[in-house]
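Two entries, shown back to back:
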Amino acid sequence: MEKTKCPIPVFIPLIVGIVAVSFSSIFVKLSDAPVSVQGMYRLLFTILFMLPFTKNQWKKAKLIQPKQWLLLFLSGTFLALHFLLWMGSLKLTTVASSTIILALQPVFVLIGAFFLFKERTSSASLMGMAVAICGAALIGWGDIGISAENLLGDLLSLFGTLAVAVHMLIGQHLLRHIPSFFYSLVVFISAVLVFAMYNGAAGIPMTGYGGHDWLIFFLLAIIPTVFGHVLFNWLMNYVSATTISVNILGEPVGASILAYFMLNESISLFQGAGGFLVCTGLYIFLKTSRVPDHIKEASVPQNV
């Protein structure tokens, strides 16, 4: 379907969105609250921001089949798992390593689409995937020399990326039948419930945090979510999902620069080389993959 013309220059919302999502990892590191609490309140505040627009949404609930309700809850579960693992990785490894590995999610989405939906892609895209994966392996290899904790953080980011890829693949299936706003609302509510059950079972307090932590919870909902991923979703009305996917590769760069100035985190030679390979490989992959638009839209990070 042909895209309509964006009412403002496209580069403006792209830059705003990339800068906004780059702050996500910074905010996580600036709070001492458990990541399961950060993730829960980030999504809860996002739901509260969505409430004014939900007046007619629940009328659509009667059209949802029991199997679809189960998949909605499953999608929310994997979204919560993604936050738990990826945000947890930031407590163990650097922003650069964690966000570069997270950028591999389009690769995992396409791999899942191949096995689930028999979607195929070009040899050039496969080469790009291989380059990107080698870059991620180089980052992990370099972090082995720093500490076992850093390597564990890299692995958590990798598993968090796998979790969000599953979340996106379920969403790709459901969004063929369910309006996107209703899908996001129910998935966010499901993820909040999963976090609440996890925190309760683990004995993690959900109240009693200081003003600084509550500010971080609020900023996580506003800046990377509303001014980041919601903005990207709006922009897909005017540009292709591939355009957004390629440009969002700026997130690891932006996050690493912010971490250098705000957290005093330096970038090692392995991280720099690995990050270059990941971004180069993903650029090749995203520009050459011959897959349907709904698969490419699933590869755009929606809720990181």
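entry 2 starts here
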Amino acid sequence: MANIVHPPAGFDGPGFFATSLDKAVGLARKHSVWPLPFATSCCGIEFMATMGSHYDIARFGAERPSFSPRQADLLMVMGTIAKKMGPIVRQVYEQMAEPKWVMAVGACASSGGIFDTYSVLQGIDKIIPVDVYVPGCPPRPEQILDGLMKIQELVENEPLNRRNTPEYKQLLASYGIE
């Protein structure tokens, strides 16, 4: 006589999946991040090294840098941002499609660095929300890759409806972004 196997508790029949849609979409997004490098200083040179064969950012699914905001989902701001450039950075951010993430690479993009002057923006978080800060002056390629892996963790674990929550809309409103 054959053994009868009963379905596990919580099994709903043919609609049962081993994962949720959020997790499946998060996994797909994690390995297909398209960065838009906004580089102005020495941090941009370190990013170029990160793109090269020795560090190979392509291993993390970010081998296609996009220089069009409409095709990118990760804005990597690297280097000193003058106050006159602030509106341009913000415009690039606003042109990006949702979902989008931001990485401030280096001391200058994170906090103005050593340039505590009237003309330098003291951190891009004054004009746009930042998800990951990469320290250093300039940061080593390994640090940039670590920042990318932190972004990937955020991307993988972000619920699909996060961008429609009142908290997220309130965050954007605090920056004057609709």
